[in-house]
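Record type: monomer structure entry
Structure origin: computed from sequence
Chain ID: A
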Amino acid sequence: SSSIIIVEGFRLFWEERIRKLLDFKIYIDVPEELIMTRRIERMRHPNKLDRQLYYREIVLPEDRKYGVPMKAFADLVVDGTQSPIHIVDQIKVKLQTCSNLISLESS
């Protein structure tokens, strides 16, 4: 029996030494418009225009610089617009496939 440890983070794949520690990397690909909608809903600032400005001036450039390029390091890229159940199913299938390949290589 083996354990699975899930580590999450916006810049998780940025450091090569961290990437080397991870056996399997997943990138959840979410369109910018949906990122903005989710981010604005979470922000506590009362002025919606200020929230949108913050997103456009800070969050979006940071995502383009640090988030999107990390997709290249992923073993699996999933569509973040799909239902969470569908995303989990995709991940399960991929992990099972990887697990089967590892056991075949070991035998």
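Annotation 1: Helices lie at 16-21, 32-42, 48-67, 84-106.
Annotation 2: The radius of gyration is 17 Å.
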